[in-house]
Design a protein that fits this description.
Blueprint lengths: L10 E3 L5 E3 L5 E3 L2 E3 L3 E6 L7 H14 L2 E6 L7 H10 L4 E4 L8 H7 L4 E6 L5 H8 L25 E6 L2 E5 L21 H6 L17 H7 L5 H22 L3
Parallel strand pairs: 5-6, 5-8, 6-7, 8-10
Antiparallel strand pairs: 1-2, 3-4, 9-10
Length: 254
């Protein structure tokens, strides 16, 4: 079998030594995991959230048909402003607010991932492994902390590993990361991965509206009225610019 394998792949072996890779449901390249039911995107008030990273992960989930779940850890130190911002920017997604330290809402979160294979991802030191330890008290996985000098996360999880939480429920813990590329995305399709644009764009003047500078754009109208998050919309513009540059460098055109 010459195909590259990823964590989460299902492989069948025969008695004569021949192995066959079963068809994948999906493949997430960052983090590199196959066949996920859901991707848990963990963020916290510290380290400072990288919302561009969150948006890119949500785009990858939509493209691969993976259910995204936002998990806000460190409820015990979270500010009202942080919680309000996340809930406003991502009101079209499932959000859980938990505290791995105190155990707040951990039971509720555990029910939400029951009978699923889920991946945990996000920046270093947001508490991915701490949540995993809180979900199963038998786990004693090493956790990291913030660098005192920079308030940035230290890498503790160094490999992608699958853990059995309980019957039919598996969790894939992944190393923290701060960058992700969407270089293979066509910039003209990027808008299709924003659920808040879907219903609104029916009112756009042009059927192929990119919601950037076109006249009579319903999405821009809803942004101006506060019905679509302005911050998330402007991050969309930044991501679109980045993807457009990468697309042009690759194919020589927009």
């Amino acid at each position: 079998m010459d195909t590259e394998l990823f964590v989460g792949d299902i492989v069948e072996f025969s008695a004569d030594g021949i192995s066959v890779l079963c068809p994948r449901i999906n493949l997430c390249t960052r983090p590199s995991v196959a066949n996920l039911d859901a991707l848990i995107i963990v963020l916290a008030v510290l380290p400072s959230p990288d919302y561009i990273l969150v948006d890119k992960l949500l785009i990858l989930c939509a493209q691969q048909k993976i259910t995204p779940i936002l998990c806000l850890n460190k409820k015990d130190i979270s500010t009202k402003g942080f919680l309000k911002k996340v809930q406003n920017d991502y009101k079209h997604f499932n959000i859980f607010i938990v505290s791995a330290k105190s155990g707040k809402n951990i039971k509720r979160f555990k029910k939400a991932i029951k009978n699923k294979f889920v991946g945990f991802c996000g920046q270093s030191a947001v508490g991915k492994t701490s949540i995993l330890n809180a979900l199963n008290k038998d786990f004693t996985l090493e956790v990291g902390d913030l660098s005192k000098k920079t308030d940035r996360g230290k890498h503790t999880t160094r490999t992608t590993e699958i853990f059995k939480l309980f019957k039919n429920t598996y969790i894939c813990d992944t190393p923290g990361f701060s960058k992700i590329s969407l270089s293979e995305f066509d910039p003209n399709t990027l808008k299709d991965y924003y659920p808040e644009f879907k219903e609104a764009e029916k009112g756009c003047k042009f059927s192929m509206c990119l919601h950037i500078n076109e006249p009579d754009c319903k999405v821009q109208e809803l942004v101006d009225s506060g019905k679509i998050s302005e911050d998330r919309y402007y991050r969309y513009l930044d991501i679109h610019d980045e993807v457009s540059r990468e697309w042009k460098n690759r194919y020589g055109k927009r």
